[in-house]
Specification:
The radius of gyration is 16 Å and the shape is globular. The protein has one domain. 7% of the residues lie in helices and 52% in strands. The longest helix has 11 residues. The chain is built from one helix and ten strands, in the order βαβββββββββ. The mean pLDDT is 91. With 149 residues, it is mainly beta.
């Protein structure tokens, strides 16, 4: 698969970013809230789910890619269950959700949900995000597993 570059400007776009980032892993030290720039950024190792589904004669592969994620127009950030001093701790991203402040209000909260109950909650003026692959893919040792519901 080609390198990914996606922009999110509404909740539907953000859902696409969330799907591509399911099971991404990120070190706590690779999360950054830049208050003066009103930006939140993260460098993650995303699991490349589309490569697990072969098309035509292509063989399925388990790949990971280094990717950058950034949110603009961030007014504030809150952490739950994340120790910023544990820079080498690894978080597993499950999903990204958006909650608007009001029906006609572009402000809202974007929450990055991690396994174990950890989360980053961003207060944003509006949705403005970008996901971009930063380099070549590499083989993952295993495919993320999800318990049967």
């Amino acid at each position: 698969m080609d390198e990914l570059k996606l922009i999110a400007l509404d909740s539907e776009d953000l859902a696409v970013l969330s799907a591509h980032l399911q099971d991404a892993v990120v070190r706590v030290g690779d999360l950054a809230y830049l208050r003066g720039e009103r930006r939140f950024a993260a460098v993650l190792n995303r699991f490349d789910w589309p490569t697990t589904m072969p098309k035509g004669r292509r063989r399925a592969e388990n790949l990971r890619r280094r990717s950058g994620l950034r949110f603009e127009r961030v007014l504030g950030a809150q952490l739950q269950g994340i120790d910023l001093n544990a820079k080498d701790a690894v978080l597993n991203l499950l999903a990204i959700h958006y909650e608007p402040s009001g029906e006609d209000d572009p402000q809202g909260h974007i929450t990055l949900l991690f396994s174990g109950g950890s989360a980053v909650r961003l207060h944003v003026e509006c949705i403005e995000a970008e996901l971009k692959d930063l380099g070549a893919a590499w083989r993952a040792k295993q495919r993320p597993q999800h318990p049967e519901e």
